[in-house]
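dumping these here so i dont lose them again. two proteins, back to back, each one seq then structure tokens. dont judge the mess
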Amino acid sequence: MRSWVGTIVLILTFFSFQSALAQPEGKFLSPKFKVGSPVQYALSYRHNPGDEVFFPDSTHDFTPFRFLKREYFPTRTNAAGSVDSVVYTLVSFEIDSVQPLKLPVYLLRKQDCTAVYAPMQTIRLQRLVDPRAKSVLLKSSTNLVVLDTQINYPLFFIILLMAAVLGGLIYWLFGAAIQRRWRQFQLWRRHLEFRGSFQRYLRGAADPKQGVMNVERAVFLWKRYLERLESKPFTTFTTKEAVSQFPQNPQLEQALRETDAVVYGGVASPQTQESLRILRDLAGRTYLRHRQIILAKNS
């Protein structure tokens, strides 16, 4: 009898958690659209002020639409909670009379992200020609039309060929240097993004309320950055496996054990920020090593 009661309680707890998640609101900002013309779709979500919310970006599948851009609006918070919203600019080249769209909002949890979908919304296609018409009457015009000057195609192709030859010559002479500079730029840009995000989490590690979460995010960001630099699965490595990749750094093991204690123990210590600095400095040295590798290959 007690096992049945326990099962029922677990089921009710699961469904109460699902129902506690508010549903996002999404709608098209116009009732109709034309093929190839931009159309706007607004998506908003009311949530607890402490929740971290993510909206779909350009990598999301917007079928039957295609993504053009999105515009975020500042978070509004009142007694009822916080509201985040974004307006997407989309375009469709499909000719279906009614075209649907259903987008999610992602809530960051301790283990993963939970997707909460807005209700399905539809928009009607504004046709320029009535498909039910059996025939279309053409309107005749006898007015003379001045034609534009025709393109000199032989000259056009000669110019195109010369441009291709010139481009090939430039690439043959300076291609290696251009590629080297481009790889250096990409490496520098990714490191700059990593430093900015990591520094924000490092400062947040001292926050008594969000400190543990900031440490967890900093360690995950560090592993993802090294994973891309070294082409090794750092995000799946244990602490021992990660330490084995850098045997010349004796401080790394203690720093990772300190951050693990914070993440799994839920309590930060005065050494937490120093441990994060050790991880940051190691990532910086790894970046410089890869930069030197690029320079050595093309010198």
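---- next one ----
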Amino acid sequence: MLTIDNHRLVGDGVSFRMTPNHGGPFSARYLVFHYTAGSSCDSSVESLCTQKARGSASAHLVLARDGRIVQLAPFNVVTWHAGVSCWEGLTGLNKRSIGIELDNAGRMQRVGEKFVAWFGKEFPAADVLLAEHKHGGGVMPWHIYSEVQLARAAELAQLLVNHYDLQDVLGHEDIAPGRKQDPGPAFPLATIASRALRSQASLTPFVVTSDTLNVRSGPGVSFDPIAPALLRGAVVLLLERVAGWSKVRVERPDGVAGWVNQRFIAPGNRQQTRRTRANPPRYVSG
């Protein structure tokens, strides 16, 4: 089992090597997954611990295909994994997120019947997923992740989300679309994110911060509202988070549950939950 002690990961198969590529102290808001696009965990660790004339990079963790984890910086120190990035109107995600690099060759090229990584290594078809990236570009070969790697990634996501009260679990492809494609379609990001954020929710109270807020049938503006819009100050209970949207339950007799844009809710407290049960949220009439 993995735990965190003084911002350092503790558990079987975990080691620590401080990278010189880091910034100052910070408080994380997000978790971002990447793939290394490298030939091995060890070579990626070396690269992320090397100061370069241009383009020095780092991350908080490197997760090997055999489940080993190398931590390169405490979780309260900025690392350089995001680059030019933006999410929910915030820019510069290095200063807002914990970064995990997964040992994975990434996108490959198909040469006849062979699948070849950019560094020249050939991979068997059993290690390749043919799929189109969610941002398009056609069907391409992608290096699959090992089962133990995916299990460790899910464990890490849940631990970090709960320990640091992180607001979302993202891919580099989400915060730098068009520039980055990692962790790619072979990584089950939506499933890992949903489980981690659901484990955090535990009916946490949140307060509406916008003048009005629609409660929708699904996570996106394409889904229809299913209840009257909530007014500023209304308290809802968090059930689940998915890619910038939160599923909430409105405290009223019919217990309606729906999706809201998570930019417009903020953490509340248990006293507010008790008050809203006595005085249900206000809605836009009409």
